[in-house]
Amino acid sequence: MSILSSIGRIATQYAAARARYRSERILLSLPAELRKDIGFPEIYDTRNSRRTATFSTKVI
After folding, report:
1. Cα 60 from chain centroid?
2. Do 20 and 28 form a contact (C-beta atoms < 8 A)?
3. What DSSP element (H or E) covers 5?
4. What pLDDT score was predicted for residue 53?
5. Domains of the chain: which residue ranges?
6. Residue ranges of E strands in 1-60
7. Given its phi and psi angles, is residue 46 left (phi above 0), alpha (psi -120 to 50 degrees) or beta?
8. DSSP H or E run through 3
């Protein structure tokens, strides 16, 4: 694996993370009633609980 391919992979992951966080910020800026209608709080809570479960599994 060359250095350039490593840098390219890191840049791609960084761009994907920025897009994901930007989308979350936009959704969180919507009124609560609208977020509830599209189901965003449930999706967000599920993802966070899954992340917590994954971290707790790795710690043990």
Report:
1. 24
2. no
3. helix 3-29
4. 53
5. 3-59
6. none
7. alpha
8. helix 3-29
> Given the structure tokens 């910020």, which residue do they identify?
25
Statement: the pTM of the whole predicted model exceeds 0.70: no
Is there a contact between 43 and 27 (Cβ–Cβ < 8 Å)? no
Instruction: Write the single-letter amino acid at 3.
Output: I
Which amino acid is residue 15, in one-letter code? A
| Token pair in block for residue 36 | 């509830």
How remote is the C-alpha of 23 from its chain's centroid? 9
What is the distance, to the nearest Å, from the Cα of residue 31 to the centroid of all Cα atoms in its chain? Answer: 20
Query: How far is Cα 3 from Cα 10, in angstroms, rounded to an integer?
Result: 11
In tens, the pLDDT along 4-32 reads: 999 999 999 999 999 999 998 998 898 98
